[in-house]
Amino acid sequence: MDTRADEGFELTGKPAPLRQMLADVWRSRDLLRMLAKKDFVARYRRASLGMAWAVGLPLVQAVVLAVVLSHFVRFKTNVNYATFIYTGTLAWTFFSGTLTSTTTAIVDGQVLATKIYFPRAILPLTTVSASLFAFLPGLPLLIILALAFGVHLGVHTLLLIPATLLMIAFTTSISLVAAALHVYFRDMRYIVQAVVVPWFWASAVFYPLSFLHHGPLRTVVELNPATGMILLFRAAVVGGDQGWLATLWWPFVWTAVFLLLAAELYRRFDRVFVDLL
Amino acid sequence: MSGLRTNSRGDFALRLSDAGKRYVKYEDVPTLVGLAKRVGARSRRGELWAVRHLDFEVAHGETVGIIGRNGAGKTTTLQMLAGVTAPTEGLVAVRGRVSPLIAVGVGFHQELTGRENVYVNGTVLGMTRREIDRLFDDIVAFAELENFIDTPVKFYSSGMLVRLGFSVAIAAHPDVLLVDEVLAVGDLPFQIKCFERIAEIRASGTSVVVVSHNLNAVRHLCSRVMVIDGGVPRFVGSTSEGISAYLEILDERVDDGGLGSSAPVRILNAELLDASGKPTVHLAGGDEATVRVEVEVVRPVQHPYPVFSLAIHTDTGLLLYQEGTFEGLILPDGRHFDAGERVTCDARFDVKLPSGTYTAQASVSWGPGEDTLRKSQVFLFYVDGRNPLLFGVADLGASFDVKAATEIAKE
User: Fold this and answer.
1) What's the DSSP call for residue B222?
2) CATH fold of B12-249, please?
3) Which CATH number is B255-384 given?
4) Which of B6, B84, B112 faces A114 most closely, judged by CB atoms?
5) Residue B87 to residue A272, Cβ atoms within 8 A
6) Chain B within 8 Å of A271 (Cβ-Cβ)?
7) A259: distance to nearest CA of chain B, Å?
């Protein structure tokens, strides 16, 4: 199986057909794997604790939230609150961290991108993949934590697999769009940084859905795709919040919307992103 | 990338057909606020053609040079050939794998070892893992980095980085190799090795496109050149004619000192002549050449002026030689220069120079002072050295007397 684009190319002013662009991305999977590995290794090599940081950060956030929040409010969760929070922060940290760092992926990759052609989508995909390497060790830790706190695990825990996949799909779709827009509008990274803050509060990371009474606020939280994404994780570990299944639609819908948008953006601008780098 | 298919199925490796690239001017690059303002206004953004009407074909195994001044559009052309940016109009077609030597060491990560970087860089250049496995030892050997390959590249010297980058790029065994200036980097033995390797892969059918200011390199490597100026091709054809065309373009831009009519001495004509007295821009190493300046003395100037002088610089700006008639000139009949008199000065010199591009500055001055009391004309000229393997700034013409030790013992 030859995976190289060795047959050459023909370029005109017209954007490439979608099929061809997808084929190009698929052909570049070796490159994606290599760049992601490089990204990941380079990210943690100098730190003496290395990968421990990748696992440690969401854990720290979970501990802080658990300690602080249980002091002020008592959310009615039927399971151990620390596990409840860690489940949410694990998914949320991946999502927000990846989105923030991926937004600048194409612009940051300009040294490479202005010299050599490869589908530009590879750059944000690389960042997502590198973040994923850092996320994965968090899953066994989550299970250990749940067992340690006596949370009942069972067949429903297998939902962690679709939960992780959905999280990857949604994060990837929105990150692709943000990275492409950032090439044109350099305000994007700040917009993303600003949006992520209220987004966290609206994502049911540290409170159960039942905490919110029916009303506009609850509607916002339910429509928020990150909510459905996080509630699926919770369903896998600490059991689903009341009414969680209804929120599950939204991450799927938004993923589809962002993917369509990304396909159009990359198809149209793939070969001209470099003009603005 | 597609839409249009060419009818031409000729044996080309690379083809530009009426290709042009238009950029949006920097100040008109869209911003969020700007976009909001423009909604409904539909005003046109300032645009700029970087290159246009490029028509060019490179056959398999052919080596072609692209020359032009800074900002002429060479980089944009290379970017289109590398597939990095699509043309705004026309077509760019490449058959086979393109390896841009413009990208030597691109993507090297400081924290990663040489070995890791070889794999990353090779993959970026389109090689598969298996290919890199197979070529790894060759790559390292060519770069002469066997002892450092597991050291993070942040500890490499810039020469080592270039060597490793070049080795990877060249190992990719591309169908089209794009070379941008990089050959000027690295020490001399490595440069020679690079030239040899490029010659090798050319012989194996790889097409090479060279972009360089080093006319010497272009001359040695390329069979044809395209001269670009102001984004449009000015000449496509043989290398020596192309280099002449390029030097003419440069000449058009050289200012003659910019002094007004107040100068008491006016340069009527200045030219560079070869050994046979013909005007030229090409000189043969070891021959004699003449810089001839004809001036008109508008007003009498005080002895020892006017002073004629000649300065020769390398293309990197190093002053090689400067001398003038500083002791003062007296005409054969014992008289000084009068107003209205026309004088010709021939500065004859031996071209004891290695191959390269040089400038000759012929000046006439009418008083002390660097620039204010002087008029100059600058020529660019190209020297074809006595020996292509002669390096340095001057051709001292050493004679090598080789004797076996037994012969010396006899003496």
Assistant:
1) -
2) Rossmann fold (3.40.50)
3) 2.70.50.60
4) B84
5) no
6) yes
7) 21
Q: Are A271 and B85 a contacting pair at CB < 8 A?
A: yes
Residue B42 in contact with residue A60, Cβ under 8 Å?
A: no
Question: Is the CB of A10 less than 8 angstroms away from the CB of B88?
Answer: no
Phi, psi of B202 (to 5 degrees): -65, -45
The pair of three-digit structure tokens given for residue A258, joined into one six-digit string: 């962002």
Which two tokens mark B304? 């020892």
- Cα–Cα distance list, A252 to A233, A243, A256, A257, B356 (Å): 15, 17, 6, 9, 65
Are A229 and A246 spatial neighbours (Cβ–Cβ below 8 Å)? no
Residue from the list A20, A117, A276 with its beta carbon closest to the beta carbon of B84: A117
Q: Which residue of B has its CA nearest to A120?
A: B84
* Cα-Cα end-to-end distance for chain B: 75
DSSP state of B399: -
Cα separation values, A161 from A46, A143, A204, B304, Å: 32, 13, 20, 94
**Does pTM surpass 0.90?**
no
Helix (H, G, I), strand (E, B) or coil at B307: strand
SS3 B286: coil
What's the average model confidence in pLDDT over B58-86?
88
Both tokens assigned to B56: 């060019």
Instruction: Find the CB nearest A112 among B3, B29, B106.
Output: B106
Q: Where are the domains of chain B?
A: 12-249, 255-384
Put simply, the answer to whether A12 touches B86 (Cβ < 8 Å) is yes
Give the distance from residue A277's alpha carbon to the nearest chain B alpha carbon, in angstroms. Answer: 11
Candidates A5, A30, A118; nearest CB to B129: A30
Flag whether residue A48 sits within 8 Å of chain B, measured between CB atoms: no
pLDDT in tens, A166-194: 999 999 999 999 999 999 888 899 999 99
| Helix H or strand E encompassing B323 | strand B319-324
What would the pLDDT profile of B136-188 be if each residue is shown by its tens digit?
999 999 988 999 999 999 898 878 888 888 888 888 788 898 887 655 556 66
| Cα dihedral sign, A64-A70-A72-A75 | positive
- Reading the block at residue B19, the tokens are 């290709």
- Contact yes or no for B4 and A4 at CB 8 A: no
Is B123 within 8 Å of A12 when comparing Cβ atoms? Answer: no
Size of the A and B interface in Cβ pairs below 8 Å: 142
